Amino acid sequence: MRRPLRLLHTADVHLDADARLIERVVDRALADAVDLLLIAGDLFDHNRVPETTVAATRAALARLRRPVVILPGNHDCLDADGVYARHDFAADAGVRVIRDLGGETVALPELDAVVWGRGMAEHEPGFQPLGGIPARDGARWHLAMAHGFFYAEPQRADRSSPIFADEIRVTGWDYVALGHHHLQADVTQGAVAAWYAGAPGTVLRIELDASGIRVEPRPLD
């Protein structure tokens, strides 16, 4: 039996000279007593944000004392001299940045969960945010992250980083945390719950237990 899981999903925080928004996200995560924070791209507005912003962000995430998984987006993608290359977020307890361009899985055995995402080096039509996602493996909670443009129907992608409805549906995963679209949106496909968190830095609380999955927008104080 999987233990119940409560997580907070945010994206498109777009921090620049001011890190107060991520502090408010962490405050909400603490108030809601979540087990995990997912940041589905564009935590930073660009790859040259001030060093003071990065330091304040790392200090805010350290207050959480819970696992945090960060997916780079199109604004803070994995440049050779980008923010995630210059700063070792993995040195901070509990923080993981998705870096593998082919996709990687973060195992969280203490939460009976895994988180998968694919690192983005360039935001372009050939990049598939859900490309290469593995099949489910066991009874753990399976959480995916993706940053890109959603297409409800199969078609030729004319936008960068396309995410197709059928791709979400066939994963068979429990929840797909999305970023890039700046309005909160439910794009659930079949049995796979999938949401855009919205921007700037709006948040969703997701409850997963034996009775199902519940998604609730939460305010930032």
Written overview of the protein:
By secondary structure, this protein is α/β, with parallel strands linked by helices. The protein has one domain: Purple Acid Phosphatase, chain A, domain 2 (4-Layer Sandwich), CATH 3.60.21. The chain is 17% helix and 30% strand. It has four helices and 14 strands. It has helices at 20-31, 51-64, 83-86, 165-171, and strands at 5-10, 36-40, 68-71, 95-97, 104-108, 113-117, 141-147, 149-151, 162-164, 175-179, 185-186, 193-196, 203-209, 212-218. Strands 4-3-2-1-13-14 form a six-stranded mixed sheet, with helices on one face. A six-stranded mixed sheet has the order 5-6-7-10-12-11, with no helix packed on it. It has a two-stranded parallel sheet with strand order 8-9. α1 (20-31) packs parallel to α2. The radius of gyration is 16 Å and the shape is globular. The N and C termini lie far apart (35 Å). 43% of the residues are buried. The model has no long low-confidence stretch (mean pLDDT 96).
Write the layout of secondary structure elements.
Elements: E1 5-10, H1 20-31, E2 36-40, H2 51-64, E3 68-71, H3 83-86, E4 95-97, E5 104-108, E6 113-117, E7 141-147, E8 149-151, E9 162-164, H4 165-171, E10 175-179, E11 185-186, E12 193-196, E13 203-209, E14 212-218
Helix pairs in contact: 1-2
Average pLDDT for all residues: 96
Distance between the termini: 35 Å
Question: What percentage of the residues does DSSP assign to strands (E)?
Answer: 25-35%
Tally of DSSP helical segments = 4
Task: Please trace the helix and strand order, writing H or E for each element.
Answer: EHEHEHEEEEEEHEEEEE
The CATH homologous superfamily: Metallo-dependent phosphatases
Structural class: alpha/beta
Helix share, percent: 10-25%
